[in-house]
Amino acid sequence: MRGRVLDLLRRGFLSQKSNFWVDGHKLEYSCLTTVNGLSCSRSMATATSSDILSKVPPKVTYNPLSDMLVDSFGRFHNYLRISLTERCNLRCQYCMPEEGVELTPNSELLSHDEIIRLASLFVTSGVDKIRLTGGEPTIRKDIEDICSSLSNLKGLKTLAMTTNGIVLLKKLPRLKDCGVNAINISLDTLIPAKFEFITRRKGHQKVMESINAAVELGYNPVKINCVVMRGLNDDEICDFVEMTREKPINVRFIEFMPFDGNVWNDKKLVPYAEMLDRVRQRFKNVERCKDHPTDTAKNFKIEGHCGTISFITSMTEHFCAGCNRLRLLADGNFKVCLFGPSEVSLRDPLRAGVDDLKLKEIIGAAVKRKKIAHAGMFDLAKTANRPMIHIGG
Question: What are phi and psi of 238, to 5 degrees?
Fold first, then answer.
């Protein structure tokens, strides 16, 4: 029993930065002590091991997992985001410069077989959720084959996709058959003319049809990602909330984040607290849901609504302490933090013929170098990083 407690500590589920529950009470702690060389709180040290294990969130399952995915702060990373392409059929203002970006030659992007081999290394080491991103993942010609191969990896529980929805309508039934069991659709406005301004392309009706199709196919919830920018779409927050009234939709309001080429400034940022206040002025009985320790979003339920709303607060209230995410970029670079400029190539050693053990050593070393938290938003705005289109949504 004690070994399981210590393993949960190593994996970050009971780290000093997290909360846990004992006898129905939420304990938040910062006072540290040491158990066999591992940092933990005095609150936890005085609780019995059975108390702690019985209160581990229900999503957590115990398995002997690889140290490759545990960073130096005890966070276990079971969530891998894979960018399949740098290409996109939209030109969203917050994602890429108006003039576009220089694309990596196709020969330097990961192939189907390379993606599956690397994904398999992660899954056999403990990753149980993969999200496919881009650019726009649905425009990759072998998207269905990639999804089918990934969904067959033993141990993978969730195969998700983030898409702009432009061509999703005709592809979603097949993608679902190929194992995609969670879907996020990006949509920043409910007004067609404003959609064209934000994305520099037409297609609002196609996105709305894709959202409805996802609901009809049984995705629950269908997640809608909405980047909120002051003076552009912040007047639509409550209109988006209305979408959750009759349908199993989770609208995720995302604070505007700085990346190369998106002309970020703090005046465009609408803080989470302000967004929530606007919602509460319009809707009654807005209640906070119980979040999982690794959730990036603060989740809320509104009385009488079928769906939910969430806020992703990267700028004003970061969630680095519970971070369980890693990123594999389309060119094969491995990134341990969305906002960190540090990257390491997995493509080059893979193509040089190194074995799986060496690849795992490279991955593990990168994970161990992950910082405890990303910089503040003003420092991030001055830090060199790739455009979001290169990193993956």
Answer: -70, -30
